[in-house]
Specification:
By secondary structure, the chain is mainly alpha-helical. The protein has one domain. Helices cover about 75% and strands about 0% of the residues. The protein has 19 helices and two strands. The protein has a two-stranded antiparallel sheet with strand order 1-2. The radius of gyration is 21 Å and the shape is globular.
């Protein structure tokens, strides 16, 4: 048994167990302290990544460690740490404290980390479900909020469908190949092709791609905003790293894979962007924005190409940072009494909260993909990769989709800066955790935009 290969997961699991035991004794009164302890556990796990020897494998070769999944785990730990440390004040001010919140985010993270290192479809399933079940609970943990319970229920029902598709697809792949271990496959066997199609559909559901997106707006809107921040970032990073691995091993073996994934990507891009214009809630607008971004991301999987896949992974990471920053601002604003995230709430708030308005505008400009923000580099890389592989139609549609998206992001900025405010909301406090998350995400989006090779070159060597 190679325990070193499991070091980040072991450190994180110890942290979860310590917080779980302390929570039984300390309860909600020490929620903030337990949350900070959870952040310390994440930092310790991220630090332990540096001491993992790779390449290595354990659990009968079902769990492997490589530079590829180690960098993915580091990204996951970094973003989860920022979500966790920025969340405590929101739950305290909204009188929705559950002491379990201090470790539920960590359990979901643990499941995603296990999933990423697995070379066995059964272990991927276990990790995926550990994360999914925890996220169903997190979405519903908003006291006295009907929409939170409704969003959690819809997420549970549709997520269970994805679980069933993944399990059935894995069974069909096993029936066709005689093994659950990943490996380069051929797609001539119709049983194998059907199994791969089901697995791909299950993962498309998890990343909110059309036509498996229906849970997303309700879950995002109903969940506590820090949980929405988590749903919109951490699972997306994990799923696309997994998508890249499975595309190389399995998905690209399907006949007409390029056409199949292209249809899903284009439908997601245009449906998400057009529906975003119809929204009256900024939180719901960002949910449809995530569907559109699922289309941008998925378009990079049309062919097995290092440039496309590297650009995708870079894009997903910096998108997660910008989205985290935007939802952190929304969390701060939601602490105001009566705040609903309706567009009318945002009228003229720049005069009352210039810092928060400027921060939200910065993150929205980043999501559009304007230089020098890092998302511009990710989008440019995907565009160049599509052109390199002579997928000119996809490249043109990618640019059109990005241009369409600019309108609804700018609409939010116009409401904040160019409208007169209709209501005096009063001051709102920004906690140290929220300030830290905003600072880190802002600096990272800008630095990675100015110096993208710090991450891109590293990813190129690993893909």
């Amino acid at each position: 048994m190679n325990w070193n290969a499991l070091l980040p997961e072991i450190v994180l699991s110890i942290g979860v167990l310590i917080i779980f035991v302390l929570e039984l004794v300390l309860k909600e009164r020490y929620y903030k302290s337990l949350t900070i302890l959870g952040f310390v556990a994440i930092v310790a796990s991220a630090f332990s990544v540096l001491f993992v020897h790779y390449p290595a494998s354990t659990l009968f070769d079902g769990f492997t460690v490589s530079g590829f999944n180690l960098i993915a785990k580091f990204f996951l730990l970094a973003v989860t740490g920022l979500v966790l440390i920025s969340s405590y004040d929101f739950f305290m001010k909204k009188n929705s404290v559950y002491s379990e919140l201090s470790y539920l985010y960590l359990i979901a993270l643990l499941g995603l980390m296990v999933m990423l290192s697995s070379e066995n479809l059964a272990i991927i399933f276990v990790g995926l479900e550990l994360a999914s079940i925890t996220m169903y609970i997190l979405v519903g943990l908003f006291k006295r909020e009907y929409f939170s319970k409704e969003g959690a229920f819809k997420y549970l029902v549709i997520g269970t469908t994805g679980t069933s598709m993944f399990a059935l697809g894995s069974g069909l792949v096993y029936g066709s190949t005689g093994s659950l271990l990943l490996g380069i496959q051929r797609g001539e066997d119709p049983i194998f092709a059907l199994g791969v199609l089901l697995i791909m559909s299950a993962l498309a559901l998890k990343v909110s791609a059309v036509p498996f997106h229906f849970w997303t707006p309700d879950a995002y809107e109903g969940a506590p905003t820090p949980t929405t921040s988590f749903l919109a970032t951490v699972p997306k990073i994990a799923m696309y790293f997994l998508f890249v691995k499975l595309t190389v091993y399995m998905f690209s073996a399907l006949p007409k894979w390029e056409f199949l994934i292209g249809v899903v990507a284009i439908a997601s891009m245009f449906y998400g962007n057009l529906m975003a214009y119809a929204q009256r809630s900024v939180k719901r607008l960002l949910a449809y924005s995530s569907i559109a971004h699922a289309g941008y991301f998925t378009l990079a999987l049309t062919v097995v190409d290092k440039l496309l896949m590297t650009s995708l992974l870079f894009y997903v990471f910096v998108y997660a940072l910008a989205t985290l920053g935007a939802f952190t601002v929304l969390s701060v604003l939601e602490k105001k009494r009566g705040w609903t995230h309706h567009f009318l709430d945002f009228k003229g708030i720049a005069k009352e909260h210039p810092f928060l308005s400027s921060a939200l505008a910065f993150f929205l400009f980043a999501l559009i993909g304007l230089p020098p923000m890092a998302i511009f580099v990710g989008k440019l890389g995907i565009f160049m990769g599509l052109v390199k592989n002579e997928l000119f139609l996809y490249a043109i549609l990618f640019v059109i989709g990005s241009l369409i998206s600019a309108g609804y992001y700018l609409k939010v900025i116009v409401y904040m800066f160019l409208h007169e405010k209709e209501r005096d909301w009063g001051a709102t406090g920004i906690s140290a955790g929220e300030s830290f998350a905003l600072l880190v995400s802002t600096v990272a989006v800008l630095i990675f935009g100015l110096f993208p090779h710090a991450v891109l070159d590293f990813l190129l060597r690993l893909v």
